Amino acid sequence: MPRLPAYLLSALLAAHGVVAQASPVALPDLGDTSLTVISPAQERKLGEELMRKARRQLVFLDDAEVNDYVQQLGQRLVSHSDNASQDFRFFVVSDPSINAFAMPGGFIGVHTGLILAAQSEAELASVLAHEIAHITQRHIPRMLTEAQRTTLPAMAALLGAILLAGSGQQGGEAAIALTTATLAQKGINFTRSSEEEADRIGVAILAEAGLDPRAMPSFFERMQNMNRHNETNLPEFLRTHPVTTSRIADSRDRAERYTYRQVPDSQGFLLTRAKIRALAPGDPAEIARGFAQNLAEGKHASADAERYGYALALLRARQYGTARAEARKLTERHPNEVAFRMLAAEVELSSGRTVPGLRAYADAYRAHPSYPPLARNYGRALLRSGRARDAEAILRAAIKQRPDDPVLYELLAQAAGEAGRRPEAHQAMAEHYYLNGNPGAAIEQLQLASRYVGDNFYLQASLEARIQAIREELALYRTK
């Protein structure tokens, strides 16, 4: 399938709030005219649809631990916003550019490049808090209200154009360009003022969450300096979130109103950055040498995190003996750190030592049964070892905690298939396709599943209901 050109994708996401802005304060629903344009439920549905499209256009990072860390950090911030009950989903895009974005309905993405560019956890949190403010203030529907004529039909037209472009048919990209240009132009005045408003809300969220609000102006200032020194390669964050001197001054003034207290970075932040570096494109052996040199010279924020990245890079380079020794050092020093226990298990499995590898995973799972990344990795390991039934039970439990993870459904489909449960296998694969933006393939899988249900009337009814729900969603966004 052809990919959308970068400038068209950027315009698409910008028009739908992927670079969405926020209004200054939460207004009571009674006076919120945006509710007449798009309800919260409609906004969520739109966001879910755009997420499925985004999965086909962007490279989502397939690492459960990194995504879980960002989700946990995001939820910590949301709990201190003025709409703590709203459902948010945070995800990571594998992209070295410095950027983050919000989509309708509470979906927030962050690039791996931004995670590495943040010099502290508070800086990363400051960007997430800014994006959270865009959503909690319902700025996207407010932008549509400002446009007056830009309502759900225009959004449906855009989604139709996305489907057209994604199918490779002529005219789709032109339709996207026309529709998004219209939406963006109508919302531009509202956008400029709202960036500063989102900053002010974000500063308050940071402070309430126990993170240093001064991190926001510090991050913005560094981005501005990057702009001055390299105008030909402007960070994507600055293209979608223009930083001005007045914005920096305003956010600093507000941050200074809070009592300063030093907040150390969490272990999760340090390990996440180390893992992203270890898994970066390039020669794994060369990456491992970089970690080794940093350890030898003391150039790191955390020796444990640096050693963790070193061991991951060694594992990628298939230097199993050294990787095992480094993993052992970490688990002996921190026996309760689940990331180190998973690392040790993966070293054993990758080196062909299946029994000790699965034993390490089983021990870790008994100690941390509610940690979704562990369940996903353990389930995958059981599948590789031919234990499909055991894997299926663990994966089903994981899906209850992460029902929006397409990888879990793909693994469950494999486990159910190998266990001889064809209807369940097709049903799980349908959800995998659906979450990855391919509703047509999802319906096909559900129809295949219905051929094997036999006299299981409950499952048959469930399959038919799911097919109908997907068809109704397709009809909602289909243009006339």
From TrEMBL:
Broad class of the protein's primary localization: periplasm
Q: Where does Zn(2+) bind?
A: H130, H134, E195
Q: How is the cofactor bound?
A: Binds 1 zinc ion per subunit.
Ranges where the Peptidase M48 domain occurs: 67-253
Would you identify the family this protein belongs to, as annotated? Belongs to the peptidase M48 family. BepA subfamily.
Show the GO cellular component annotation of the record. Answer: membrane; periplasmic space
SUPFAM superfamilies, A to Z: TPR-like
Annotated function:
Functions as both a chaperone and a metalloprotease. Maintains the integrity of the outer membrane by promoting either the assembly or the elimination of outer membrane proteins, depending on their folding state.
Q: Which residues form the signal peptide?
A: 1-22
Q: Which CDD domains match?
A: M48C_bepA_like
Protein name as it appears in the record = Putative beta-barrel assembly-enhancing protease
Native source organism of the sequence: Sulfurifustis variabilis
- Which InterPro entries does this chain map to? Mito/Outer_Membr_Metalloprot (IPR051156), Peptidase_M48 (IPR001915), Protease_BepA (IPR030873), TPR-like_helical_dom_sf (IPR011990)
Provide the taxonomic classification: Bacteria, Pseudomonadati, Pseudomonadota, Gammaproteobacteria, Acidiferrobacterales
Location within or outside the cell: Periplasm
What cofactor does this one take?
A: Zn(2+)
Q: Which UniProt keywords apply?
A: Hydrolase, Metal-binding, Metalloprotease, Periplasm, Protease, Signal, Zinc
Might you name a Gene Ontology BP term for this protein?
A: proteolysis involved in protein catabolic process
Can you tell me which residues form the catalytic site? E131, D199
Query: One GO molecular-function annotation for this sequence?
Result: metalloendopeptidase activity
**EC number(s) per entry:** 3.4.-.-
Q: What class of enzyme is it?
A: hydrolase
